[in-house]
Design goal:
Elements lengths: L6 E6 L4 E6 L3 E14 L4 E5 L4 E4 L2 E15 L8 H14 L15
């Protein structure tokens, strides 16, 4: 028997932690309250208020806070996985930094 679930709704009380081991990308939406979540191997933190959502790659997701949240399968899109996106962002910042040169006394580079 195959069970099809469109979404799951959770009510978190203060001090409770929800752990989700996602096999696919998930959309986590805050309906009420305020929640904090950290997702994936990159450990990126998200703070969500009512009406906001985060798209998380597959893997371990920890959710804490107080309020109502929903989890649903995220629509597949053509964006780069989150970790690759952040690596490219770091590379871009690194490339746009001014180059630092060091003068070595007594040597000539001609």
């Amino acid at each position: 028997m195959r069970v099809i679930v469109t979404y799951a709704r959770f009510l978190l009380y203060p001090g409770e932690v929800l752990r989700v081991d996602g096999r696919e990308r998930l959309a986590i939406r805050c309906e009420q309250g305020r929640i904090w979540l950290t997702a994936g191997v990159e450990g990126i933190d998200h703070y969500l208020s009512p009406g906001e959502q985060a798209i998380c790659d597959s893997g371990c997701i920890l959710v804490e806070g107080q309020g109502v949240l929903t989890l649903a399968a995220a629509a597949h899109d053509r964006r780069l996985p989150t970790m690759i996106y952040y690596l490219l962002l770091i590379l871009q910042r690194w490339l746009h930094q001014p180059f630092r040169t060091q003068l070595i006394r007594g040597e000539s580079h001609v």
